[in-house]
Write a structure and sequence with these properties.
Aminopeptidase; four-stranded antiparallel beta sheet; elongated; binds zinc ion; Peptidase_M20; ArgE/DapE family deacylase; zinc; metal-binding
Length: 430
């Protein structure tokens, strides 16, 4: 750990720049970066990485290698319009440990804007919170990475280890952005991902799969409805079967370390539904868009086989209550996350150091927890074998209305990360 003098200097440097940090964060939140529309926001990040004097690597993420990888999620958008940006710092003489600071630029859809109290792209600060889509998840963390790194230099110090500052796409839907960065050759002795994690460290998280189920019906005039087959009614049966599988998987949580004490770690979300052509025809089709979660250690292939079996069995054994057929046709297609979860094994040097820097910044002990949501940490842990600390500020309502991030928490997390960077990579007087 650092001397008291260096600690004081670095903490003061974070404070001195904190207004500028909030301005950069607000500017980034006010720049929408929905899926396949991230480029203007990545332009802002690239400019800031250039201003920090880093070597810039910006590339479109599509590659054969990426598509062949077992952790690749099938995309439904055009990857030729999407880029990752990495800024690299190399010390004149590399003697310290290396570090990746990762964050994702993409944000989830804002939903009906009239249900927000202000525009999702206002990035207004009110009562100690910054509001806006992506404020918490995770533009505050992404900018905090840059300012934590810069605080070392502002404190008059020079890092002696290599640092890669990564801004990736696709975290909210496939995880292919971080995977592309790994496959491009970016590795380090540790990774920090500054996701909104309640000032806490993620110990374990679930895997996630996305897929579409298409149910086929038989269209007839409603006057002879009994001769047709209603695909929308039948889709309810598919949902019922998936809910049973969800409960079965939740009942197994006692077999999975770090999940035993959670009430309901496995959540299946019916995230979209569409079907039928108009009210006066028995619907010939219905599509469900589904997100499921899995335990770490369950491969995506194994989970997928179980899901397919569950839905196909339900379709084959239907009671025929929706029309003339005793069974119905379903087709399942993976179209997003195809990702296994991970566990951060306790006992790493990186975690021990974060405990110290967290204590210095927050004046309390670091806690860890299990999260039932997807994280790119799985890329670095499962495929890069790197100790990965997913750790970041307090937020509320991420993926919901009036998403917000706590300003004071951002400040303290930035301090903790700055101390971590200096201590992990090593410093000398600049
Ligand atoms: Zn996130």
């Amino acid at each position: 750990m650092l001397s008291e003098d260096l600690t004081t200097r670095i903490l003061a440097a974070v404070d001195a720049q904190f207004d500028a940090q909030l301005e950069r964060t607000a500017e980034l939140v006010a720049t929408p970066s929905l899926r396949a529309g991230e480029e203007p926001a990545q332009d802002l990040i690239e400019q800031q990485l250039r201003d920090l004097g880093l070597d810039i690597d910006r590339w479109t993420i599509d590659s054969e290698e990426l598509r062949a990888h077992p952790g690749f999620g099938k995309p439904t958008v055009d990857y030729s319009v999407m880029t990752n940006v990495v800024g690299t710092y190399r010390p004149r003489e590399e003697s310290g440990r290396s570090l990746i600071l990762n964050g994702h630029i993409d944000v989830v859809p804002e939903g009906p804007e009239e249900q927000w109290s202000r525009s999702p792209w206002d990035s207004e600060i009110r009562d100690g919170w910054m509001y806006g889509r992506g404020a918490g998840d995770m533009k505050a963390g992404l900018i905090a990475n840059l300012f934590a790194f810069d605080a070392i230099r502002k404190a008059g110090l020079e890092l002696t280890g290599r640092v890669h500052l990564q801004s990736v796409v696709e975290e909210e839907c496939t995880g292919n952005g971080s995977l592309a960065a790994l496959l491009r050759g970016y590795t380090a002795d540790a990774v920090i991902i500054s996701e909104p994690e309640e000032d806490s460290l993620v110990r374990a998280n679930v895997g996630v799969l996305w897929f579409t189920v298409r149910v086929s019906g038989n269209p007839t005039h409603p006057r002879e409805m009994a001769n047709g087959f209603n695909a929308i009614d039948a889709a309810y049966e598919v949902i019922g079967a998936l809910r049973e599988l969800e409960e079965e998987w939740n009942s197994q949580r006692g077999d999975h370390p770090y999940f035993e004490d959670l009430d309901h770690p496995i959540n299946f979300n019916i995230g979209g539904i569409s079907g039928g052509d108009w009210p006066s025809s028995v619907p010939a089709w219905c599509e469900l868009r589904v997100r499921v979660a899995t335990y770490p250690g369950t491969t995506a292939d194994d989970a997928w086989a179980e899901i397919v079996r569950c839905v196909e069995t339900a379709a084959a054994g239907s009671e025929g209550v929706h029309g003339s057929r005793p069974s119905f046709d379903v087709r399942l297609t993976p179209d997003g996350f195809y990702a296994e979860g991970y566990v951060l094994e306790p006992g790493s040097d990186a975690e021990a150091l974060l405990e110290e820097t967290h204590r210095a910044a927050f004046d309390r002990e670091l806690t860890s927890f299990t999260t039932p949501g997807y994280l790119d940490g799985r890329v670095f842990v499962n495929y890069g074998d790197m100790p990965t600390l997913v750790y970041g500020p307090v937020s509320e309502s991420i993926h919901g209305f009036d998403e917000r991030v706590s300003i004071e928490s951002v400040r303290r997390c930035t301090k903790s990360m700055a101390l971590f960077i200096a201590s992990w990579c090593g410093v000398r007087e600049g």
